[in-house]
Amino acid sequence: MACRIILASQSPRRKDLLQQVGLDFSIQIANINETPLLNEKVEQYIQRIAMAKAQTIAKQQPDAIVIAADTTVTVDSEILGKPEHQQHALYMWQKLSGRLHQVKTTIVIAYASQCWHDTVTTDILFKDLTDEEMLAYWQTGEPLDKAGGYAIQGRAAAWVKRMEGSYSNVVGLPLFETLQLLKQAQFCASKSV
């Protein structure tokens, strides 16, 4: 008997990525506080948030396999979250302009009080950005709900000079690693039925 799968995310990009690989799942949002703690390192932050999302839904749905993730953009060890307003977006893009930065995602799969997790890092090099390019991009509305204020699958693809690592990670969910963890959880679920 197959265990049902829940994606603990409201991200349309994560939903699209899982549908792209043919996964059958439902969505349940974990309402948690995603504010970074004082002096919290990037990896600690995304692991804490992804784990909190997974465990919140797993407690409510103990018979399901829960997929949760948290993605952030980082440069100079600074977490660049979702832009709060135009000036915030411009600040982030000025930091990323002509520089190498990292997109990090922690994936957590929770089932029957067990958790499996992995953290994936992708390196991105942006071209030098002009004020006109940044302002025009802001006007599209695309940056609003994206870590680092950009969508690699959208217009910001034109800013990427080089990428090393998982493309789906930058979109919001590293598929290869997610499916590997899911296999472990499904194996465990099949043994407990």
TrEMBL record:
It catalyses: UTP + H2O = UMP + diphosphate + H(+); dTTP + H2O = dTMP + diphosphate + H(+). Keywords: Cytoplasm, Hydrolase, Nucleotide metabolism. One of its GO terms (cellular component) is cytoplasm. GO terms for biological process: nucleotide metabolic process. It comes from the Bacteria. Transmembrane segments: none annotated. It holds the Pfam family Maf. It is found in: Cytoplasm. HAMAP family: Maf. Nucleoside triphosphate pyrophosphatase that hydrolyzes dTTP and UTP. May have a dual role in cell division arrest and in preventing the incorporation of modified nucleotides into cellular nucleic acids. This is dTTP/UTP pyrophosphatase. It comes from Acinetobacter qingfengensis. The lineage of its organism: Bacteria, Pseudomonadati, Pseudomonadota, Gammaproteobacteria, Moraxellales.
